[in-house]
Amino acid sequence: MLTKRFLQNRRGGQLSFAEHSRLEAAIADINQVAPRDVIVKADQLLDHSTLLLEGFMCRYIDDVKGLRQLVAIHVPGDFVDLHGYPLKRLDHNVASLTQANTATIPHSAFDEISEELPNLSRKLWFATLLDAAIHRAWLFRLGRLDALGRVAHFLSETNVRLMAVDLSDGHQYACGITQYDLAEICGLTSVHVNRVMRQLREEQLCVFRSGVVEIPDPQRLARRGQFDPSYLYMTPNLFYA
Amino acid sequence: MLTKRFLQNRRGGQLSFAEHSRLEAAIADINQVAPRDVIVKADQLLDHSTLLLEGFMCRYIDDVKGLRQLVAIHVPGDFVDLHGYPLKRLDHNVASLTQANTATIPHSAFDEISEELPNLSRKLWFATLLDAAIHRAWLFRLGRLDALGRVAHFLSETNVRLMAVDLSDGHQYACGITQYDLAEICGLTSVHVNRVMRQLREEQLCVFRSGVVEIPDPQRLARRGQFDPSYLYMTPNLFYA
DNA sequence: CGAACGTTTGAGATGACTCAAGCGTTGTGG
DNA sequence: CCACAACGCTTGAGTCATCTCAAACGTTCG
């Protein structure tokens, strides 16, 4: 089932069988995306949204010099550009990090859903607000944490998000991102991220090698990054404390 | 009309007369809020949302030491906790910055609206996504700009948001926030914000005095903060370039 | 008049950046 | 099958932006 991971293990968001079916039926297209490919540009008019099935994507904003600030990363089960449905055009770009598979759903299907299944409609709204909650956690990370804390917070968040969709066992996951990506996420230089990764390794908080993250003691890493997963609205008692 | 400023001058969001009336009718209560008062706590179960009529409010996340990171500020016409409708509880706190007037709308009214006026429902969704777009701009600000750029970006953003609701003439506005607030918004210390404000003054980019912001040349300030208002989804040709 | 609050300034410490170079791995074309 | 380019990772040395700590000033309000 292609939509299986959408809102999987999210409190107040999980889809009924009928809702899953309706969403599946709305899929117009399945696509493969190459790594580092831009799939939506800012300001572009949109008539469909994209559900990420496999792989990792990101959203980013360019500065004057062409440097990127990542404002979100997306894991399988996420809609990467659902905001484009009410907004009609996005304020940022969407690109793949790794190779990815996506499902395309036309906005007209969402119009129909809002008439037929208002509860599903509300869950789509919920999904976009989950993104907003993650944005806020990222603001906290950038505004209040030092370099090591930022990386620890991000790696903890990603661990929990991947646990929710069965792509992390809680201690290890593969996300195929580079130290350069981490820098663009955490508002640091890649040189400094590298030094931070060494320190995380030395303190046995986390080992990062060719896109694979190993976390011996997730609670300890979370503490170092002041990470509290409640903003992810996971089903109760599943993750962490 | 109490809801006049809600989505005023927003592209794709402006309310019809009928929609304004329906929203007015949904108002259950009008309240006055003292300055620096916390009106919603994180995790608290919510059964209503709050429309800001007058004054300024903020949303913030506490760190372990009790220091705050502001993740949003709100101006008249904003719903300060509409995210709480689909989410049921918030991941952050909501507080007033200045004295404020608010209107309370029970969530049950939104349920009814989603049946009766699906278009208004979509505009409420739109409003929350506007918040998300602002979150992303704040991420860009914290991740990519230096101290002076961050303050310039924030003051430019606030200028445009207040222009949209007729509370700025484009060169001057009153928002009653302190340098300490600015520090919590921009991820800086208040000491450094003070030095930045002096530099902005010396470079004639901006004068900030007892909560009043004066901007002699808004375009120049915007350039310094890499501020591009397109993420605010204003009606065309109204503001800036 | 004193307390509280916001602003201002100085001096010294430090976390992160810049610039620069080198290393290891992977993939590709001759 | 080797050579080389591309990419990501690693490390060092010096610089700079911002922070910390500390003190003082102005205004408002009770």
User: Helical element count of chain A?
Assistant: 8
Number of domains of chain A: 2
Secondary-structure element order of chain A, as H and E?
HEEEEEHEEHHHEHHEEH
Oligomer: homodimer
Task: Please identify which CATH superfamily of the largest domain in chain A we are dealing with.
Answer: Jelly Rolls
CA-based shape of chain A: globular
Task: Report the CATH C-level class of the largest domain in chain A.
Answer: Mainly Beta
Structural class by SSE content of chain A: alpha+beta
CATH topology of the largest domain in chain A: Jelly Rolls
Chain pair sharing the greatest interface: A-B, 47 and 46 residues
Identify low-pLDDT runs of chain A: none
Tally of DSSP β-strands of chain A: 10
Strand order of the largest sheet of chain A: 2-6-4-5
* Distance between the first and last residues' Cα of chain A: 31 Å
Helix and strand topology:
The structure is a homodimer of 241-residue chains.
Chain A: H1 17-26, E1 29-33, E2 38-40, E3 48-54, E4 57-62, E5 68-74, H2 84-87, E6 93-96, E7 100-106, H3 107-116, H4 118-144, H5 147-164, E8 172-174, H6 179-186, H7 190-202, E9 207-209, E10 212-214, H8 218-224
Antiparallel strand pairs in A: 1-7, 2-6, 3-7, 4-5, 4-6, 8-10, 9-10
Helix pairs in contact in A: 3-4, 5-7, 5-8, 6-7
Chain A binds a DNA duplex (30 and 30 nucleotides) through residues 146-147, 178-180, 188-192, 194-195, 197-198, 210.
